[in-house]
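[recover] target loaded
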């Protein structure tokens, strides 16, 4: 049996030339997965239906599956990055949004004095001014240190908020990131209780 194969290997091997592959691909685009119609469209190449089926299942299905998996992975990466971006944006703007949504859901009422200081409708209260200042500080820090280090700062703030970190631990994290930016570190210290400032 091996001698017969060695004497005439082309009889036992199905070789696909570039033209054969192009004909198959154009037939696949036209007829999608109807292999009988694809093999009829390849009439002049000498490829019968059995060879078309063999080629399809040995070479085309794995390629399509790999492309499908790659496409799904890329979609998952884009979705995760989008979700993380929205979570970060929601976290940074959660103070005002949460208080409004809590009020709508029957939670605690919004105290107008925190926004206006109990004065005229156009005036800004100390709490709201502090909140705006903190948002400005975070925006400045993001510009100064870049996104990667900024996310480290956000992680420390989240840890402090969740009570996983103490104030000194949080400050140490900020010092390690903002060591080249002393002005930003001074601005951060303004938001800490006096006994924790440097």
């Amino acid at each position: 049996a091996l001698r017969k194969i060695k004497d005439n290997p082309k009889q036992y091997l199905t070789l696909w030339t570039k033209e054969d592959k192009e004909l198959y691909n154009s037939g696949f685009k036209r007829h999608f997965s109807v292999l009988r119609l694809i093999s009829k469209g390849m009439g002049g190449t000498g490829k019968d239906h059995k060879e078309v089926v063999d080629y399809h299942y040995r070479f085309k299905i794995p390629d399509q599956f790999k492309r499908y998996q790659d496409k799904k992975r890329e979609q998952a990466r884009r979705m995760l990055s989008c979700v993380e971006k929205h979570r970060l944006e929601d976290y940074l703007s959660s103070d005002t949004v949460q208080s409004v949504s809590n009020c709508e859901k029957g939670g605690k009422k919004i105290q107008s004095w925190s926004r206006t200081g109990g004065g005229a409708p156009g005036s800004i209260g100390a709490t709201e001014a502090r909140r705006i200042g903190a948002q400005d500080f975070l925006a400045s820090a993001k510009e100064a240190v870049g996104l990667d280090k900024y996310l480290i700062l956000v992680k420390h703030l989240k840890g402090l908020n969740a009570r996983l970190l103490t104030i000194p631990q949080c400050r140490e994290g900020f010092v390690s990131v903002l060591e080249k930016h002393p002005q930003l570190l001074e601005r951060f210290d303004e938001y800490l209780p006096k006994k924790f400032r440097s």
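[recover] notes: The mean pLDDT is 78.
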